[in-house]
Design goal:
single chain, about 525 residues, alpha+beta, D-Maltodextrin-Binding Protein, domain 2, Dipeptide-binding Protein, domain 3, four-stranded antiparallel β-sheet, about 25% helix
């Protein structure tokens, strides 16, 4: 999947500040951004979802930074090297301070990695066997086996201040974040606004925009109205039905690019499933294929998404390690109602069955409408979907692994690491078999052959060999269908003239890279 270039740059607001020392008036740049939902957390080891991730990277830094185009470059680590096949040495950046003035050192890195192992995010450090301090500006990391993509993984490990985090305690870190990032928290009135101010001592240079206000606006129509009336300068996830309206308004631009976020359907593969009477039909691959063949992805794109989605060929886009050239899920399993019915009958379910679909109504573009369309489509083959649609604030806890409530889940997954292995290890690896793996395997899928492939991919220092092994894993998953990929969203932003916004591939809005006139 090739990324489109932005269709425009611009939109903005300017704030005024009085410089008390001189009495002069200077323009101080500010911007207000409308986002789809309030962050769930500001503590990076408390959970993961897009709004929280956006805030994390304003407040904290990783050792390795991920650029807007998914390149991996020095962050808090200025360089790294392989000492041997399983040992990496990272040289840390000198002179970096946390927002409270504490110096950033190797102790903070060691603390963060060990803290992650004990948190609900052990997946972040699953391939770190040991970390040790060499000196104040050097750490050494040992992996269980040769592991070619450790630097990519470290782009998601955001470094904590050991002293401050220990004193503050995990429960308070959401309200009192302390990082080395370009911004620090000024104010958070939940469900109303979150205000960040520039950290002028930021190691990469002070931010150009001095104050950033994020406003959670869950309703798409309200979000568009807030942009057009000047309440906000930028909005995330401009409603597809409002794209032409905003494009035709003077003083506004629409910026788009294909998203990394793949909307997927996870199917429960346990013998007994919470919302299905009797035995679970989805343990049979023929039933999973029947469900796939009943879904008209093109109709969803045209009618629900207004043409602003890209049907998923595989679980990761063509730019990623593990993608198989020429393989297309929709060509393997084209919509075919009669074939789907025949597969159900062959599997012993000629009259279909009933189950519940869990989905959000404020996390993905037109998510509730997609769920309704799926219910209509599956009804044609006798599969009745009861819809359990909820806000994302309830959704993540409801479907949390081990999943005691769910049989069929619509969610999304993106792979900003550019490597299918991180997705496959999290979503498809047998649960409770390997520490840090299978932690979001919501369908309880278990395939020893796939586990072996993931283990092999994680045990080679060669990126070429890793790619070949992960391609074999992709082929296995495409044949077995533990999950149905639907489409990649189109990232759509509405922007007021005056603000420079270049969308990131990972959909993280990062004010540090923005500017206003």
């Amino acid at each position: 999947m090739k990324f489109l270039s932005r269709t425009a740059l611009r939109a903005g607001a300017v704030g005024l500040a009085v410089l008390a020392a001189t009495g002069a008036v200077a323009q101080e740049k500010s911007v207000t951004i409308g986002i789809t939902a309030d962050p769930s957390h500001l503590y990076p080891l408390a959970g993961e979802e897009l709004s929280s991730n956006i805030m994390y990277y304003h407040l904290y830094d990783p050792l390795v930074k991920r650029t807007a185009e998914l390149e991996f470059v020095p962050g808090l680590a200025e360089s790294w090297e392989n000492v041997d096949d399983t040992t990496w040495r990272f040289k840390l950046r000198e002179g970096v301070t946390f927002h409270n003035g504490n110096a950033f050192t190797a102790d903070d890195v060691v603390f963060t990695v060990n803290k992650a192992k004990e948190s609900i995010r052990p997946d972040l450090v699953a391939n770190i066997a040991e970390i040790r301090k060499i000196d104040d500006l050097t750490v050494e990391i040992t992996t269980p086996a040769p592991y070619a993509v450790l630097p990519n993984d470290l782009a998601e490990v955001l470094i904590l201040d050991e002293e401050y985090t220990t004193e503050t305690g995990d429960e308070q870190m959401d309200l009192k974040p302390m990082g080395t990032g370009p911004y620090k928290l000024d104010e958070w009135i939940k469900e109303e606004k979150l205000v960040l101010s520039a950290f002028d001592d930021y190691w990469a240079g002070a931010p150009k925009i001095k104050q950033v206000t994020f406003r959670p606006i869950t309703n798409p129509a309200t979000r568009t109205a807030a942009l057009l009336t000047g309440e906000v300068d930028v909005i995330q996830d401009l409603a597809v039905r409002d794209v032409e309206r905003v494009r035709n308004e003077d003083g506004f631009e629409v910026i788009t690019r294909p998203s990394l976020l793949n909307v997927v359907l996870a199917m429960d593969t346990r013998a007994k499933s919470p919302t299905i009477e009797g035995d679970n039909p989805m343990t049979d691959q023929r039933v999973r294929e029947a469900i796939a063949r009943a879904i008209d992805v093109d109709a969803i794109n045209k009618i629900v998404m207004n043409g602003l989605a890209t049907p998923s060929e595989q679980f990761v886009p063509a730019s990623h390690t593990g993608y198989v050239e020429g393989m297309n899920f929709r060509e393997m399993y084209p919509m075919d109602i009669e074939k789907a019915k025949a597969l159900l009958a062959e599997a012993g379910y000629p009259d279909g069955f009933t189950m519940t679909l869990d989905a959000t109504n404020n996390r993905y573009v037109n998510d509730a409408q997609i769920a309704q369309a799926l219910a209509s489509m599956l009804a044609k083959i006798g599969v009745t979907l009861n819809l359990n649609i909820m806000p994302k604030s309830n959704f993540w806890g409801y479907i949390r692994v081990p999943t005691e409530n769910s049989s069929f889940i619509m969610s999304g997954w993106d792979v900003p690491a550019g490597d299918a292995g991180s997705m496959y290890g999290a979503l498809f690896y047998t649960r409770d078999k390997r520490e840090g793996y299978g932690q979001v395997n919501r369908g309880s899928y278990s395939n020893p052959e796939l586990d072996k492939l993931i283990d092999a991919a994680d045990s080679t220092p060669s990126l070429e060999k890793r790619d070949a092994i992960l391609q074999d894993a992709t082929k296995l998953l495409m044949a077995d269908i533990p999950m149905i990929p639907l489409h990649y969203e189109q990232d759509i932003y509405g922007v007021r003239d005056g603000v420079t916004l270049v969308p990131r591939t990972d959909k993280f809005i990062w004010a540090y890279d923005m500017d206003v006139e």
